[in-house]
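Tutorial, part two.
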Amino acid sequence: MKKSILILIAIPIILFGAAKYLEWLKENRTFPTQELALDNILEPSWKPTEFIETVTVPKGQYSYVFYYSNFNGQRDYIQLAEFEKVKNGWKLVTIAGVGFLDTEINYKYYSHSGGIESGEEYGFVNNDVVTVKRGSHEALMIPVKNKKIWFFANLTDDILKERLEFVDEKGNVIARF
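Running the prediction step on this input gives:
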């Protein structure tokens, strides 16, 4: 009788412990490379079909991977994955959509895709834009087919107060927001 009671008490404790361990493992899963981490994503629409560019910010704690996926079954959707460098490798922080490559640019030179809440800002521009600036800070420009992705990382509140400028090859500001 005592043995049966002990078994009945032990089973839920073991199951609870196993569930907590699996939850911890899922949250703390790290990989040696960012690309390997993306290849192990469980959500099929977030899985990469082709990698575009990996950007590591100067202090090296965070890295950003731009890649194509088949989001909602549609081709040529560009996503941005943010990674944090931890003791055992790279940990996925978040994934955000940049947009479909065939999306029309809403303004003549500019389309914003979000991200300013966390210090990143990015979007698409037509090929006649050579540089995107906020004050003296220049965005990284990543060519993709018939457009470019512009990307800022580690933006502070002071930098975000500066106007966003889109500059052509002659140095002329062709759009300012």
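Residues 32 and 142 are 24 Å apart (CA to CA). In part three we will examine how such features are distributed along the chain.
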